[in-house]
Amino acid sequence: MDTSHGTLLLYQPLFSDSFLLPPLLPYIPLEFSLISIFQPFVNQGHPLHDLFPPRVWAIRIPIILILLGSAVVGSFLSVVMIRSNRKKAAKARAVEAGKKKA
């Protein structure tokens, strides 16, 4: 076993799973769109209706995913902005302290 990249081996499951998700994301809204378009033309008693959730979820799931994704992106951006402002403020305080000493 190669131990020179021990930390890489530790994170391997995380990376391998994360590479599978992006190619699948476009199919989720597409599937629910197709369900909502074609289900009205299939008889109500047909077994095909048992395979899919009710039509109302064709709207709910993409909206939930968009709101959740927007919240994650917004949270990430706010954390990055707060941290960068803290660094700038600390640097400004250090410059001020240097000027007072001189």
TrEMBL record:
Membrane topology term reads: Multi-pass membrane protein
The principal location of this protein is endoplasmic reticulum
Residue spans crossing the bilayer: 57-82
- Which pathway does the record list? Protein modification; protein glycosylation
Cross-referenced InterPro entries? DPM2
Does Zinc count among this protein's keywords? Answer: no
Asked whether the UniProt record includes Mitochondrion among its keywords, one would answer no
| Location within or outside the cell | Endoplasmic reticulum membrane
What are the entry keywords?
A: Endoplasmic reticulum, Membrane, Transmembrane, Transmembrane helix
- Pfam family name, one: DPM2
The role this protein plays is: Regulatory subunit of the dolichol-phosphate mannose (DPM) synthase complex; essential for the ER localization.
Assembly and oligomerization: Component of the dolichol-phosphate mannose (DPM) synthase complex.
Q: Which family does it belong to?
A: Belongs to the DPM2 family.
Q: Which PANTHER family match?
A: DOLICHOL PHOSPHATE-MANNOSE BIOSYNTHESIS REGULATORY PROTEIN
Q: What is this protein called?
A: Dolichol phosphate-mannose biosynthesis regulatory protein
Species this chain originates from:
Lepraria finkii
